[in-house]
Design goal:
This protein has 541 residues and is an alpha/beta fold. 29% of the residues lie in helices and 21% in strands. The protein has an 8-stranded parallel β-barrel. Strands 9, 11, 12, 15, 18 and 21 form a 6-stranded antiparallel β-sheet that branches. Helix 1 packs parallel to helix 6.
Amino acid sequence: MRKPAWSILIVFLSILLTGCYHTTDSDILSETPAISTTPKRIAVPSNSPSPTPAVKRDIEGTFRVWMSLNHPGELLDTTTWKYVYENVDTLQIRIYDLNETDSDDLFDFAALLNSSGIRLSIECEGLDYTICENYKGDPESIGRLSAMQEVAQLERLRKAGYKPDYVMFDHPVTRAVFPYEDFKQMPQVTYAEAAEALEYCMKCWRETYPDIQFFYCPNFPNHGWKGGFAYWYLHDEYGRGDFYEELQAVLQVTREGGVEFEGLICDNPYDYITGKMNSNQKNISKGINWFERVMDLEQEVRNAGLQFALIYNSDQPGMKGPAGSYYLDTLKFINEYAEEGGVTDFAVIESWYPYPAAWVPEDAPYTMTNLTRDVIRQLKYDQIADLENVDMSVGAVPRDTMRTDQWQFDSRVEGWIEQNDITEMRCEKGTLYINCTGSDPYLFSAPDLHIPADQYSRLLIRIKYSDSLTGLQVFFGPNGPPDFSADRCYTVSDDFSAGEYADIMIDLSSHPLWKGDIGRLRIDPASQPCDVWIDSIILEP
């Protein structure tokens, strides 16, 4: 195989990223007898049975339930989700959302996992679009560089004291076959070539996390299957391509390479499996029994010796609500799949949609923990949820958010997240201490601040440096993913003396783009290695 020019860099970075944190229970998901999920028609009693104590969590003894989360900080008060906390087996989080978590919440979240026995699954890409495009024809570089990029993003979690138990790759082969999901282009590589890149990716993950277990997640309805058409016309009538061929290539190549998947988690929302979702090739897909297709996938997965799970959710209620509709469709999905004869090894309750709008409290109608609680009651304890009286008038339960316009750092980092060239950031004696170790250190505020620009005209920063230096920068961006373009920047050119606090006033109103709804701030405190102490950051009218 051709050795890329990057090979030396790959080896060097691999050494840097390789850790010594090992999972001690690598056989926790060993093959188990199939558990029937066909519900018994038993009403939910007014007083639920005592949940399984967290310290005695028996992952193999009862049906397993996973729950997704977006904001770890929302789950730190376990009294708001006590039943789910004591019964859920695994939490799953997207790697992006994990890195939107400030260091204080991350440490507390790691402590929660360590003390509870709840396991953690990281949802990530597996293969990176840009790397797939730039290193086409070099599967080793694609796989290793993709893995190193995502493993590096878990360094903050590792420092907080937790190592992930599982990794779920979200349609990784598609990222190599159709970079950026541009389905107008011809396939860029074969399934076997993409699978080879994935093999190197998995090996690289194992260098840092030797006992990590891998799950494969396809966007199943938008693939063809055994010559049958996909739900949507994408590249052609087979959507992303025939998943049967992709699956066989992935299993063969990874097994021959000495790394294997533990199971497959099928992404196939309820309104797809029932055929109710709109399609741009409805005339050729309307005759397909989608339940049978998913169950055929289930059988192929079992024949390969892997575990099979479904993500139970529903696309349009997730996008449009109301919250009760999403709750209803999720439970109906569980019931109907079992009634059709399908069996899953565990259930994944996940939403990447606007609904549910909140994860807690579990006793509020149709939050994520409320939904997961009723799924647990049904699948673990045979207590069937009441679907006859779901309140469709209940809208989204809003997140308990409060607009922030000042940060004093009395005891916590208050949502600020270290992003680049910062080795350590913590609260220290009522200040935010930042250890800058490169030439481009910067930190982000919490996302989605929703700052009304017309109500704030000044930003005050009280700051101190370990060395004399000149200047800092402040960026501002919209709500949503970070977008700090050069034209959304204030540059401060003051000279700062070592060891002395300086009070900086930035005239926000002077910037022509300071308007509308501001979502996020970014501070570049220095352009050289140094220690920084920020006493306060205050927005003023």
